[in-house]
Amino acid sequence: MQRTLIVMGPVQIIGFCLAITAFELITYMASDMIMPAMLSVTDEFHADARHVPNAFNLYLIGGVCLQWLIGPLSDRYGRRRLLLFGCALFGLACSAAVMTQRIEAFNALRLIQGMGLGFVIAVSYPTLQEVFCEADAVRLMALLGNVALLSPLLGPLLGSLLLEWLSWRQLFLGLGAASAIIWLALLAWMPETIGVVRRDGQQQAPAPFSLRQMGQRYLALLRNRSFVASSLALGLMSLPLIAWIGLAPVLLMQRLELSALAYGLWQIPVFSAVIVGNLLLDRLLADHSLIRLIELALWPFCLGLLLLIAASLSPTSLILTVAGLALYALGLGMSNAALYRLALFASDDGKGLVSAMIGMLSITVMGGGGTLIALIGGGRSLQSFALWAALGGLLCLPLLYRLLRNSSSAPATPNAPQ
């Protein structure tokens, strides 16, 4: 049984964790499962293939554009009602994609669908941190992240298989129906953490909401060097993986002329490695501090990016590129949840607002970096992609060096109340 800080029964704990995980999974599925169909979408709309990575990056930008408001609103009015609203908005946007007739309308809906990702980051992540103690929260973030990673692992493969019988419009309709089921699960099992007395006797009172105060709180966060460094590092560490998700359909299906099924199979080593990294994090968490876990994760992380640079010099680089991505992804899986925890507790401000700023900074880096990699030729060849993705990922090292050096000389990372 997890050690909760909110009074919850076993059934509610399980239902809440499953509902949160399902919502996170489906927000990623709406991106990854559709990627094999994107060339069909652009063909149907008589649009350029550049809209394939553009639609993915718009989805990421959608995850950023409302987080500045979602987080403070959840601090004021409660996490539960905000997440219910976000799930409903996401489901309606998926269902509306069935009726699109132009690529511009399709891209606009991708932006709105991406807002569902913003609700996951700004509302559900802080809720987990508030419901469970530190060790359990980090462990759940990693283990539940494994389920979410089934989307990029199985999403392209599942999408490729479903496209044998269904159209891309029917896929979106199915995502909308699944969102309705998840909404009902959240309604039944999600607890409220704002204004509730916890088992330790403490209570997180609703935070006052004013645009002026909110702006001041965001500016205070931007002056917190440890917070900014960890948030930007989160985005840069994930950049090679995000760039791969966005450009892989073009690189594998258009450039190398692989089938949609082969495209899906080549995703398996990369995203399996992230899951293995999360499982290693779970095993090491009991005996190692968060700082030490990140230090250990940097070994496979850096070796994988160096292998990508080697792949950029190889004329037959597919195997080498995927091997480098897999090794890098192992380190990413070992460090991501730990680094998120450090960022979240680098400030004593409301966790909805802090989580929103983490998401805005990290996803802006991922979306902007992915767009830049595409613009400078990352989709022209595997060699070009490998080089730019590796260089983008290595940019996180100066930030991590400062963060780890400062953290090792400072008191222990603040814990959630035990």
Automatic annotation (TrEMBL):
<dbReference type="InterPro" id="IPR036259">
    <property type="entry name" value="MFS_trans_sf"/>
</dbReference>
<feature type="transmembrane region" description="Helical">
    <location>
        <begin position="12"/>
        <end position="31"/>
    </location>
</feature>
<feature type="transmembrane region" description="Helical">
    <location>
        <begin position="293"/>
        <end position="313"/>
    </location>
</feature>
<dbReference type="Pfam" id="PF07690">
    <property type="entry name" value="MFS_1"/>
</dbReference>
<feature type="transmembrane region" description="Helical">
    <location>
        <begin position="319"/>
        <end position="340"/>
    </location>
</feature>
<keyword id="KW-0812">Transmembrane</keyword>
<feature type="domain" description="Major facilitator superfamily (MFS) profile">
    <location>
        <begin position="16"/>
        <end position="410"/>
    </location>
</feature>
<feature type="transmembrane region" description="Helical">
    <location>
        <begin position="140"/>
        <end position="159"/>
    </location>
</feature>
<dbReference type="InterPro" id="IPR011701">
    <property type="entry name" value="MFS"/>
</dbReference>
<keyword id="KW-0046">Antibiotic resistance</keyword>
<comment type="subunit">
    <text>Monomer.</text>
</comment>
<feature type="transmembrane region" description="Helical">
    <location>
        <begin position="227"/>
        <end position="248"/>
    </location>
</feature>
<protein>
    <recommendedName>
        <fullName>Multidrug transporter MdfA</fullName>
    </recommendedName>
</protein>
<keyword id="KW-1003">Cell membrane</keyword>
<keyword id="KW-1133">Transmembrane helix</keyword>
<dbReference type="GO" id="GO:0046677">
    <property type="term" value="P:response to antibiotic"/>
</dbReference>
<feature type="transmembrane region" description="Helical">
    <location>
        <begin position="51"/>
        <end position="70"/>
    </location>
</feature>
<feature type="transmembrane region" description="Helical">
    <location>
        <begin position="352"/>
        <end position="376"/>
    </location>
</feature>
<feature type="transmembrane region" description="Helical">
    <location>
        <begin position="171"/>
        <end position="189"/>
    </location>
</feature>
<dbReference type="GO" id="GO:0015385">
    <property type="term" value="F:sodium:proton antiporter activity"/>
</dbReference>
<keyword id="KW-0997">Cell inner membrane</keyword>
<feature type="transmembrane region" description="Helical">
    <location>
        <begin position="82"/>
        <end position="99"/>
    </location>
</feature>
<feature type="transmembrane region" description="Helical">
    <location>
        <begin position="111"/>
        <end position="128"/>
    </location>
</feature>
<feature type="transmembrane region" description="Helical">
    <location>
        <begin position="382"/>
        <end position="401"/>
    </location>
</feature>
<dbReference type="GO" id="GO:0005886">
    <property type="term" value="C:plasma membrane"/>
</dbReference>
<dbReference type="InterPro" id="IPR005829">
    <property type="entry name" value="Sugar_transporter_CS"/>
</dbReference>
<comment type="similarity">
    <text>Belongs to the major facilitator superfamily. MdfA family.</text>
</comment>
<dbReference type="GO" id="GO:1990961">
    <property type="term" value="P:xenobiotic detoxification by transmembrane export across the plasma membrane"/>
</dbReference>
<keyword id="KW-0813">Transport</keyword>
<dbReference type="InterPro" id="IPR020846">
    <property type="entry name" value="MFS_dom"/>
</dbReference>
<keyword id="KW-0472">Membrane</keyword>
<feature type="transmembrane region" description="Helical">
    <location>
        <begin position="260"/>
        <end position="281"/>
    </location>
</feature>
